[in-house]
Write a structure and sequence with these properties.
36% helix; binds flavin mononucleotide; alpha+beta; four-stranded antiparallel β-sheet; 173 residues; single chain
């Protein structure tokens, strides 16, 4: 798949089967994350965790549902990639770095035929629960700055109109 095709095909999926992704695919996706543009090339300010422990995923799902009781913010995904960061050498850039890292990983997943979704809700769940942070293993000074669920869609999800420009554009010439 070329890059533009992957960009067009990526879609947020909100419902996953139990089928786990392969370790080889997971490694490729995490590698793509590490190839992202990062401010000041401060790669050491970040850490990537691949969470696949069902009990821990359940705890994160529950902790993340506090704002919407009864919801399942992880959508049943069998893998949650958690990006943690300490303060960067460029303070304040951490969430922007996260966007670049996670977008790279979502596009790599699309290329491999794996479904994904960027999840903000689970970031609140993780950062609000010291027990979860300890279980994931963040070093001192690190907080979650973004997460991404991975797996296979439980049902056909609506394809977006890939040729539609969704952000208003102005040409200033
Ligand atoms: C930073 C960020 C955080 C997001 N967090 C959530 C989330 O917590 N839950 C969710 O269902 N979707 C989340 N999304 C997905 C967006 O809702 C989705 O990208 C948007 O609706 C556009 O749809 P598309 O990704 O299918 O093109 C998030 C997206 C971004 C970029």
């Amino acid at each position: 798949m070329n890059t533009l095709d992957a960009i067009k095909a990526r879609r947020s999926v909100r419902g996953f089967t139990d089928r786990q992704i392969s370790d080889a695919d997971l490694e490729t996706i995490l590698f793509a994350g590490g190839q992202a543009a990062v401010g000041g090339a401060d790669f050491k300010s970040m850490k990537l965790y691949a969470v696949q422990d069902p009990e821990l995923l359940k705890s994160i799902d529950e902790a993340s549902a506090k704002r919407r009781p009864g919801s399942h913010p992880l959508y049943g995904a069998p893998t949650l990639v958690v990006l943690a960061s300490k303060e960067s050498i460029l303070p304040g850039i951490e969430l922007t770095n996260a966007g670049c890292v996670i977008e790279n990983m979502m596009l790599a997943a699309t290329d491999l035929g794996i479904d994904s979704i960027y999840l903000w809700m689970s970031m609140y769940g993780i950062n609000g629960d010291p027990d979860i942070i300890e279980k994931i293993g963040f070093p001192e000074g690190f907080t979650c700055v973004g997460t991404m669920a991975l797996g296979y869609a439980a049902k056909e999800f609506p394809k977006h109109r890939a040729d539609e420009q969704r952000i208003e554009v102005a040409y200033v010439r």
